Hints:
By secondary structure, the protein is an all-alpha fold. The chain has helices at 19-49, 56-85, 92-125, 130-133, 136-161, 179-183, 192-223, 229-258, 267-277, 279-290, 293-303, 305-320; strands at residues 10-12, 89-90, 171-172.
Amino acid sequence: MANLTSMSGFLLMGFSENRKLQILHALLFLVTYLLALTGNFLIITVTILDHCLQSPMYYFLKHLSVLDLCFISVTVPQSIANSLMNSGYISLGQCILQAFFFIALASSEVAILTVMSYDRYVAICRPLQYETIMDPYACRHAVSAVWLAGGFSGLMHAAVNFSIPLCGKRVIYQFFCDIPQMLKLACSHEFVNEIAVAAVTTSAAFVCLVSIVLSYIRIFSTVLRIPSAEGRTKVFATCLPHLFVVTFFLSTAGFEFLRPPSDSQSAMDLMFSIFYTVIPPTLNPVIYSLRNEAIKAALRKMLSKGEFAQRRIYLKAIFKF
């Protein structure tokens, strides 16, 4: 590992200093990254090209996949490169950008999951008003608000966190520029502003969580009154994947960010960081496609020989412009 005592960057400790384990880590992360790219790219492509998947639910799913693609690309490629080069060094500029995009995309992901839960609530509990409430104009504004809120959150954290004077060795016990770990490097009593910003972000996430919980309370109370078992099964097949994604992402991220950062590297820190940075973007396409008959049918149609050739010609025509 590089000696950072005279450098302005940081040392990411990663998973191991053993060369064989570093190579294994790089290979596992590479396979996971390729799976995430493939799955999310397929979801994005099929929701753009298939005319049957143009409802608000699939519109929001498309943006969730875009967020997942960006989210996993912020941390995993850098970690793979560090392992292959046997160097955990990351420059100050890279660390600032990584922290900004990580917080921005994580915040946007929480926001889009909240919007998706509201979309399911309106579709199931107020079906007669669904087209009026979730019209294309409202959906575009909701997605714009998601991206703007995430960008603002990332900007606040990056601006405040990187204006704090740092003391001691610049060693981060993570495989990416994790803000809770970076606060340990701050000089005494210099991180009050970051705590205030984190409190605002946490409060916003809590409001999103409450909104999601309330939406699903109403959804399940409505579903349980459906007399048809087939109808209940269809609704649960639509809602349960989303509920699983929300629960997994928020619980692991909340546990990691709310508990005090450790003074040294631990397996638990790394495990929970993988749970909310790597696994959700990889599993989301699998969860939504395997439980959604419309997406599976659209994927089979798109990947069929004749249809695939037509879509390829169509995409080429688009990119020419």
